[in-house]
Amino acid sequence: MSAILEQLAPESTLADDRYADIRRRAHQRLMQHGFPDLKTEAWKYTSLKLLEKRELSTASGDVVASPEALPFSADVIRFDGGLVDEAPTNLPAGVRLEPIDPVELVNLDYGDRAGAMAWLNLARFEQAWKLVIESVLDRPLVLAMTLPEGFSASVHPRLKIEVASGAEAVLIEQQRDHGEGLVNIVQDIELQRGARLRHVISRRNAGSVWVQRTRVSVAADADYRCCALELAGRLVRQDLAVHLLEDGANGEIDGVAFVDSRQHVDWHTAIDHEVGHTNSRESFRILADGSGVGVFNGRIHIQRGADDSHSDLNTANLLLSENARINTKPELEIYAEEVTASHGATIGQLEDSALFYLRSRGLPVDQAMALLKFGFAAAPLEQAQPAAVREWLNADLHSVL
Amino acid sequence: MNQTAQQVEQVIQQRYKAGFYTDIDSDRIRAGLDEEIVAMISAKKNEPEWLLEWRLKAFHHWQTMVGPNWAHLNLPPIDFQNIHYYAAPKQKDRPKSLDEVDPKLLETFDKLGVPLHERARLAGVAVDAVFDSVSVGTTFQKELKEAGVIFCSFSEAVQDHPDLVREYLGSVVPYTDNYFAALNSAVFSDGSFVYIPKDTRCPMELSTYFRINARDTGQFERTLIVAEPGSHVSYLEGCTAPMRDENQLHAAVVELVALEKAQIKYSTVQNWYPGDENGKGGIYNFVTKRGDCREDDSRISWTQVETGSAITWKYPSCVLRGDRSAGEFYSVALTHNHQQADTGTKMIHLGKNTTSKVISKGISAGKSNNSYRGLVRMAKRAHDARNYTQCDSLLIGKTCGAHTFPYIESANASAKIEHEATTSRIGEDQLFYCRSRGLDEEDAVAMIVDGFCKEVFKELPMEFAVEAKALLEISLEGAVG
Q: From its phi and psi, is residue A298 left (phi > 0), alpha (psi between -120 and 50) or beta?
């Protein structure tokens, strides 16, 4: 058994509850496939070797920290170390949070070693939750997860989010890490007919390894829009797959990531047009400074018969220092005819002429550079709604740059 | 009834004009692959000891490897023990001039439109013709010799210029590089060798024409081009094979070395038999092509038009080692019926101020799959390096696939990379425009495709551009409607 398997997947000590069989099966699959290495295509640029050296405890119940205050009114659901803090009583009308029935988890399949972290989640999760949004919410719903200093556990939160037909919501994931553990999240988001979800991910990490896998399914005329602000971390891997399942489904992803020294961020997105008359758009930017490594893999897949689908993917990247690295791979996989699909990718640096322009107007070089970086990074955040959320994201970005 | 069958046959023949078979006595070694076969090939070529050792090392390394499975291809397993690794038309000794070459062979190349005979002097292209495993003749040797250019078959080069071959063989594509390169290194039978001396501009276009003729054989040729400082050469490559129901393997290695300020332009029109409309037969074309811009200010340009082969797996690459060196890749890849292509390029920027440009046009029709797979890598010391990549795909029909897998890696903060890709179908408005001016649908499509590929065609030498355009039109026959 490899070191990483020994470290992460010892025999479970979890209670023999109604999820036990599911965990056992997942554990078997994990042992069968093992963990990905750099030869695994989906993990080509990201190594999990860091985890081999970490002493991770499994206790998570005592991880408690208060989330940062938000500058706008919102309903907040707190996750402490992956567990919802008891059954929240202050949920807004039209929102339910309940444990998932094990039947829903029986047939899950995460494939081979590329999906090892998802198998690990299924083998180790304590409680799987389902969040159901059934009406039009008038203020954002926040899922707050804050890991305090000294956090060194491995936690495996599992959450399903259902947005019912005709419901609308702004869902914000406010994720803050100050520890050195492992967070391994699996999320399934389901948008039913005509539902609308604005999904905001705001993440700022310290030393923890953060792996998150989000699968979104979008039904007829439903609209999923994700806006992400990734303010680095020791090692972050985000998989975000959007499946457009029925006519009129729309999927959009806008994101920006900033990495500095000893930080590694890897975003893998996939937009899958399973039927025709579906639209998608994606724009992702990375700024890499210090010895930071930024990875972006964006895939657009238009399946056979998904005629009249339209898709556009754009990724722009700034390399800001001699030791930083950016690896990007925008993929198109097209099997239908009447489609338009395009992607563009650039890697470059700040324009000297733009810097000169600002300096000639009296700005010191640091400020001029910060302004240019901010201008570049803030573009994808323009899509965030409502305005108060956008300003909050901008302020966060500003504080880092 | 009989007449109809004949007509159908004629149409098929017309679609792949190079699909005939030449009935010629051939000398063929037994099928299979082992140390003895490798030694037999080496002995047939009367090779020096060091080359046999090199082949055997490659063979042993190949035995430790497994075939690549990462390409977007549906590749049935290949029985490497069922292939004849050497087949050559019978002749007593290598002919000293083309007059001594078997007329049947000359006729074959005449039929293929290759100006092999000296009387085709007006064509102004020197040709090395490779038939199955051996070179059957090289034209304009005398004129080239006067200019100091060496252009001969690989086997001759091993005998006549062993030091040059030994210095450069495997220096760009080592036998450890990949599965098919290792296989080729073990069993390569012939190919072309080009050496352009310092400050020499090669007086004419050089060309190699590869022909697979014999049944159950594979072709494993090796091309090595060395351009000394300040030299310039333009090299063309063409290939065809008879129509057969079984698949045949072509695993070649091409190595280019460009020294200071040297320029190499390498053009390919690949027209191996693509298989029939049901996907039966055709050539598996697994080729490793790499150019090394070894010294400053050198330039390597790849241009390829890929219309043939059942399966293509090919990534002509440039290693931009010298400062200010430049790499270019222009490609048109057309797949039809059940053809599969996974092709693209690698641009590895190592030196300062290096530049590269990639223009790739993929056209998919029928039930084919066409993938562009490319890598642009800026190494840490590739200061101020630049890359521009454009890959466009055109879909004709509802049952084909077009894919793009670009890998872009940058470790230098002053390097700039731009990549853009589009996938679309031929617009109804474009078709309507052409048809309203009296063109039928097939001509309209051919015209639009020609426009789509123009950027690449203009990089080809003129004769090849005409041939490439005609090939595309033929390959697209039946793709519409």
A: beta
